User: Fold Polyprenol dehydrogenase from Climacteris rufus.
Amino acid sequence: VEFLYCDLASMKSIRQFVQRFRAKNCPLHVLVNNAGVMLVPEGKTEDGFEEHFGLNYLGHFLLTNLLLDTLKQSGTHSHSARIITVSSATHYVGKLHLNDLQSRCSYSAHGAYAQSKLALVLFTYRLQHLLTANGSHVTANVVDPGVVNTELYKHVFWVVKVVKWMTAWLVFKTPEEGASTTIYAAVSPEMEGAGGCYLYNEERTKSADVTYDEELQKRLWTESCKMVGISDEASRLP
Assistant:
């Protein structure tokens, strides 16, 4: 195991990480987008993005796009490279505000978190469409890990923390259990060549209806490219 530092809340750090990784000339067979914050007080990343949207979504969007060439070179006809993005069941109640992705008009920690998780699902489906259109041997899937007992809940109300402490053994998954679907998506032979799936408990299931809106997927992708400062090559594809 080798550690390379990358701060997903910093576009500069992401770009520096990709440069360091590329310099090693290593193949990249699996990319798991798993960083996240939840229900944090209103704040901004160093690039001025609302923290949930900037870290949970835009950081992964930029990282994935900058690593796409390496992923495409690493995948083969019999063994596709795999991109796994961790979302949440919260996306089912999320709303994407394309005119206010930074939640500047009205900030709600719950709303901002749900929007970031919804954006990750839309991004995954659009990414898979583009990978298929290019004939790339790379798949993109999105995972719902379930309710997992981690430090992600440190910003919830104290009442929720008490309930969590009392019921964790019954309701919450352990981190190992929470990682199982991500690992399944990353290495299972059953997922070879399969992309554009929403996975929960190691099974394909249906995500929110709005996530299948291809026009919304395109619009979010285009806007995301503008926000992170990369060219929207996908605009030339259907």
